[in-house]
Amino acid sequence: MARSLRLTDPARIPANSPGRGIPDVIGRPGPSPFHRLNPLTKATLATTTAVAAVVLGGLVGPSILVGAAVIVPAAMAGVLRRLLVMAAILALPIALSAFLINLFFFPGGETVLLRIGPVAATAEGLGFAMEILARILAISGAITLFYLTTRPADLVVDLERRGVSPRAAFVINASVQTVPAMVERAGQITAAQRARGLDTEGSIWRRVRGIVPIVGPVILGSIAEVEERTMALEARGFSRPGRRTLLWSPGDSSREAVLRWAMVLALAALIVGRMSGAWQ
Amino acid sequence: MTLRLSGVGYRYAGATRPSLLDIDLALPNGSVVGLVGASEAGKTTLCLVASGLAPRVVGGQVRGTISLDDEDVDAWPMHRLSQRIGIGFQNPATQLSQVASTVFEEVAFGPMNLGVDRSDVVDGTWAALGSLGIEDLAGRDPARLSGGQQQLVAMAGLLAMHPEHLVLDEPTAQLDPAGTRLVGAAISQLAADGVSILVTEQKTDLLAAIASSVVVLAEGRIALSGPTDEVLADPRLADLGVAEPAAVRLRRAATSAGVDTARLEAALRD
Amino acid sequence: MVVRWIIAIAAFLVVAFIGIVGFGNFATGIDEEVFYDIEGADSFAVILAVALIVGFVAYAAVEYAQTRTFASISRQFDTRTIVLMPVAIAINIVLGAAVANALKIPIYLDSIGTILVGVLAGPIPGALTGFLSNMLWTYVVPPPFNSGAAAAFAIVAAVIGLVAGLVGRAAWLRPRPNRPMGQLLTGAVVTIGVIALMAYLSFLGYEAIIGESGITVANDNVAFVILGWLALALVVLTVIGLLYMLFARRDLTASYVVIAGLGTGIVAALISAPISANLFGGVTGAGTDFLVAAFRQAGTDIGAATLGQGLISDPIDKITTFFVVYLIVSAMATRMKARFPQGERLFDAPATDAADDGEWRGASA
């Protein structure tokens, strides 16, 4: 852009312009030191915690992980209450089904604790259900902590800075914005259909029948917009090859890099130990 | 700096008939050319061809030449052409990049894609916001703006790439009267700044106010063209599927009712 | 082109073979009690995933060696595909969450977007759409759409997208309307034959599971009876839909849709069962849990229960999904479809244009 056009003439920027910087809402730092960790560090913590919970298995390992890698950092970041509420909402359907199914339908369970009609809760089933519960809590807790302390856009900018292609970054970023937009659209259509007397509650068959007139327009409408969006992006230089300019990126330090590698190596050691049978 | 179409024709992929034929059009500096016509007359197609999206993105086949300052742009890739010619569409929401959480980032999206230096991106973005008078929106979420404001943000996103020419396909079609006034004022201001603008518009009242000349398309060819006053007062306009501006209809009604419009207008002017 | 595919498939097979022979933990063998081996199934899933990645890398490497570019891969990622992918991902997540949380029916409907991208753009964008959908579903999208379980199944979603891409590339979803009755009957017989064969094989499987486990299932076992009726009802509905499409619209593509869905569903079930069994005790909080419970009550091991659930749910789910995708693709304007990388395989090429006078030219850039 060697050409200088009148629109860039600094004299045209009015006096009340916020100046040469970017608006301070862009990339505003988080409220706590944990929030301000690099997004990749927090993502690594969430992933290694979740995988470690599965690799460890049992009841004790995942429980310790929940305490050390979820509860303590969440308390430090001041999001403990929200984390507990959200993790409960997130994990409740899985946890409840897993708990009940394993409690009552565990095959080979002999120590009967409780009998309800044709099914019986057994001690073996209870033990197994507790293990599954601990695992699910560790996984959903780790992910919720990441979600509560990281803006998706920050992670994407950071990944792009590290060399992820701008096109991949676009797909991730646009997906995150499209989900709520589509929900809003579905909500509008649902309200309209309800007003016309369509049922979205009741028996399975009625629910299935109710969902079709909502889903159809949402899907077809979104797909019809693809063409316009494609042209709009092309008109804005989207297909230019090579890296693009970033306005800002989250901070990172060599200490954090060491921390990330330590987490990954610890997980690898855990997996190797588990697979080689050196430790069960 | 002139965008010129000479003998341009265009045919969509798989179509048996061309959608555009023998289009000759020039967009000199600072001009606002209005483009009108019945539906399916080829207005949108002409916008796509003039901006270079057809055939580069849309496919299909083109003939004739499109030139910028007498340089044939046939071999230019879209990202190079988009720095000289910007194109805007009627739906404000689909023009947003969907990756920006603030208006500032939305407007900066184009220059960022072009890999412009960061400080130039920032300056250019403020300048583009300033030229449309929407700097106070910079920190807002673009998805939560009114349609008129979104359309201005989309235009600012094009301006941030410093185009010399803007092609706008029905920019006010989905806007309320307030939004239409915002966009109309912005177009006049941009033309005064030296940008040339080709604008498709159903609202001939708006064109009467902002366009320096008007082109009427019918079945893919130019049916009428000339200075705005002449074309919009042309009696053939209605037959070509174009609504006349209210002023023209009023004048005709007054004349047929026996009012001397020339004297009336002179009296009103005083 | 052919060389690349041969080398990629060879790499896949070699890695899979080495993995199974060298690293797979199959020492415990098939457990006589439960007809299933969790450790073995686990190794199998990991080895397949690694082999798939190695196969892809081999393909890319050969292409780079031949042409110094990754054109055949990057061509699948034009701007249009890049714009479609977020829409597809949102469709997956929103619909998947709605079905799992609200409808509680034993199918998922969380791969319509994945299969759509695969069919329109190609195997690699399809795989990426599936992978990203499940990753974002867990890590990035806000509650109540968030799902803690999805990321673990990202590899399954990727394979679904890959298979859908190959189905699209093979032009299976091209409409074949107004075929003569003979062809339609052949199509119907072949399709129903395949479904019947599948049903018979799974019946044999259940016999083996239940027979081997030494537990007799009483006829009055409520859950099992419901399960049986439900599975039967879904299969019957699918067959009716297929026959309607075959004979009302005389569209032979119905048969292709069913076979593509069946194949994709079986592959998905095989890969997802061990993940589901190991990570979540076979339970993911969705409507499919009901099936798992039924199997477990019949006395099967977790692995067998999740596999049994998958083999019922997945083929029906994927047939339905392919059906929906076929409807969507049919509803799209030809001009719109044609611009996607694999779009021209979805309709019959129109009659050639009027004679070219040489003046007309396409995009040169």
What does this structure look like?
- The complex is a heterotrimer of chains A (280), B (270) and C (365).
- Chain A is mainly alpha-helical and 280 residues long.
- Helices cover 65% and strands 3% of the residues of chain A.
- Among the domains of chain A are: 39-150, no CATH class; 158-234, no CATH class.
- In chain A, helix 1 runs parallel beside helix 8, helix 3 (80-105) runs antiparallel to helix 4 and helix 6 (166-195) crosses helix 7 (204-234).
- Mean pLDDT of chain A is 79; it is low at 1-19.
- Chain B has 270 residues and is of the alpha/beta class.
- Chain B has two domains: 3-84 and 164-228, P-loop containing nucleotide triphosphate hydrolases (Rossmann fold, 3-Layer(aba) Sandwich), CATH 3.40.50.300; 91-162, no CATH class.
- In chain B, the strands form two sheets. In chain B, strands 6-7-8-3-9-10 form a six-stranded mixed sheet, sandwiched between helices. In chain B, strands 2-1-4-5 form a four-stranded antiparallel sheet, with helices on one face.
- Chain C has 365 residues and is mostly helical.
- Among the domains of chain C are: 1-69; 181-343, no CATH class.
- Chain C is 70% helix and 0% strand.
- In chain C, 52% of the residues are buried.
- Chains A and C meet through helix 1, helix 3, helix 4, helix 6 and helix 7 of A and helix 4, helix 6, helix 10 and helix 11 of C.
Short account of what is shown:
The complex is a heterotrimer of chains A (280), B (270) and C (365). Chain A is mainly alpha-helical and 280 residues long.
* Rounded average pLDDT of chain B: 90
Low-confidence region ranges of chain B: none
CATH topology of the largest domain in chain B: Rossmann fold
**What's the CATH class of the largest domain in chain B, please?**
Alpha Beta
| Estimated radius of gyration of chain B | 19 Å
Strand order of the largest sheet of chain A: 1-2
- The proportion of strand residues of chain B reads 15-25%
The backbone outline of chain B, from C-alpha atoms, is globular
Report the total helices of chain A: 8
| Percent helix of chain B | 25-40%
Helix content of chain A: 55-70%
| Main sheet makeup of chain A | 2 strands, antiparallel
Structural class of chain B: alpha/beta
Total DSSP E strands of chain A: 2
